[in-house]
Amino acid sequence: MEPLYPTTKTFSLKNYGIENATMRYQLPSENLQEEVVRKGQGKITKSGALTINTGEFTGRSPMDRFIVKDHITQDKVWWGDINIPFDQDAFDALYDKVTNYLSEKEVFVRDSYACADPEYKLNIRVLNEYPWSNMFAYNMFLRPEKKELESFDPDWLIVNAPGFMADPEVDGTRQHNFAILNFSKKIALIGGTGYTGEIKKGIFSALNFILPVERNCLPMHCSANEGEDGKTALFFGLSGTGKTTLSTDPKRKLIGDDEHAWTEEDTVFNFEGGCYAKVIDLSSEKEPEIYSAIKKGALLENIIIDDNGVVDYTDSSITQNTRVSYPIDHIENIKVPSRGKTVTNIFFLTADAFGVLPPISKLTKEQASYHFISGYTAKVAGTEAGVNEPLPSFSACFGAPFMPLHPKEYGDMLMDKIEKTGANVWLVNTGWTGGAYGTGSRMKLKYTRAMINAALEGKLDDVNYVTDNHFDLSMPESCPDVPSDILNPRNTWADKEAYDAKAEELVNSFKKNFKQFE
Question: Which residues are 189's β-sheet partners?
Answer without folding.
Answer: 159, 180
